[in-house]
Amino acid sequence: MTLLEAYVVMFIASFCSLVIEMVAGRILAPFVGVSIYTWTSIIGVILAGISIGAYIGGKIVDRFPARKTLGILLLLSGLSSLTIIPLTDLVAAHRFPLSLMWRIFTVTTIIFFIPGCILGTISPVVVRLTLKNVERAGNVVGKIYAVSTLGAIIGTFATGFALISLMGTRPIIMSMGALLVAAALIFGALFKARKAQAIFLVAMFVLFSGFYVFAHKPHVDERYYYYRESDYYTLKLAKTQSTEGKTLQALILDNLIHSYVCLEDPTHIEYEYERIYAEIMKWRFAQHAPFKSLSIGGGGYTFPRYMEITYPEAKIDVAEIDPMITKIVYDKLGLPANTRIKTYNTDGRWYVMNSAEKYDVIFTDAYNDLSIPYHLTTKEFMAQLKSIMTPDGILLSNIIDNFQKGAFLPSYMKTLQAVFGEKNVYLFSVSPDFENLRISTFIVMASVRPLNMAEFDAWLKKDYRSEAKSAIVSDALMRKLLANPHAIVITDSYAPVDNLIAPVFEERFGYNRKRK
């Protein structure tokens, strides 16, 4: 095997390995979220596969030191890559009776270990077939591994910066499989006769066509009329009905229904937590008040649209990291081109750090129960938020947790208290049945100055009577909640958010851990 051929084969193998590793996070996100558990499992499992594969490859090539050996291994690596998507569809949503960490590890191992292992066999085979002179072994091996690393680097950047947004995960996996099979045919000396090569090509065409039709096409339910993968989410749109019989458009990010939008009535609010937002806003601001609001996380822009219509003098800004979401809201969810809502497609923390505005109300709507951007939960970020709030400003955050035993909700509240003061943090629930309340959505409010919750409660009873959605959690119940021994102040240097929220995800899949 020539040195040039060795360079090409190792570049392709390493490129494909890192592309698959990068894509793995997006493939698993709709099922297990994007957390430190996810990336730890992906990196660890694929590295373990490559390590074991390198050992096996060395044994194989010593026994069968032929170019055909390389061809067979490249072919197997390509075919094993094609199993990733079907295995994901079969395994990822299975309810393993395991903790979150072990569930993610198990799913990742089943899906990615074998492809990683077979790809790991390539490097010792290439080195063995290339070496002709032991005296120059160091120089040759060094060059081969340098090119291999270059392939891994290019695979990493190409996937993260271009391939996912241009192609989507499933076409990427199919392309990597095809590239490896092509490398097997070109460099592997699998067939001497042209007839055999022609039969092989026809067989591969049939195989890839079958995989595309039956396995690699997205399994999109007939309810969904739109499907797209962005750099951040798997995005879907579906039509559904509201509790009042109105036609709604549901925006699904990965597996979470993030927003409901009524095209005929943009002021319609389906989620109860957003109705709590509406009640608080009505209490705080008159209809023509010229307040400024910032929403960190736009989703379907349901509440920004509500504010735009309900408060005609308000200035409404949205920091939405995913430009594809914003495009969908304009194209599919009815946001008009002449909207007063101003969107900044950037990370919420980066926007806050560089903002010269002062806001009367800030909403953080970038959290869900599977993927929580930890840098938007820390004490340092809360201090940055406070720095861009007016003296009468308020911060509203929606949090999903288990009211009875969750650790993220009290930790988030403790973190807010560390910045805004113990008396300036308040909690609302969508249900007043606190004794039986389990996993639910809660609104945490922080204010620069103290607020009179007794006054708010009296106002609710007067204006909304029994139809009010805001169930105010009492000070005594809040103290009990904050006494949770697992609650912490979240900081940039200590933010175990994935660990804090893990029990919510586990309970969804039927596993209940026992607190010590």
Can you describe what's shown?
By secondary structure, the chain is of the alpha/beta class. 53% of the residues lie in helices and 15% in strands. The chain has 18 helices and twelve strands. The chain has helices spanning 3-32, 36-63, 67-82, 84-91, 100-120, 122-130, 137-167, 169-187, 194-216, 272-284, 302-310, 323-331, 348-353, 379-387, 408-420, 453-463, 475-482, 497-508; strands at residues 224-229, 234-241, 247-253, 256-261, 292-296, 315-319, 342-344, 359-364, 389-402, 425-429, 439-447, 471-472. The strands form two sheets. An eight-stranded mixed beta sheet has the order 7-6-5-8-9-11-10-12, with helices on both faces. Strands 1-2-3-4 form a four-stranded antiparallel beta sheet. A hairpin with a 5-residue loop joins strand 2 (234-241) and strand 3. Helix 1 runs antiparallel to helix 8 (169-187), helix 2 (36-63) runs parallel beside helix 5 (100-120) and helix 3 runs antiparallel to helix 8 (169-187). It is elongated. The mean pLDDT is 90.
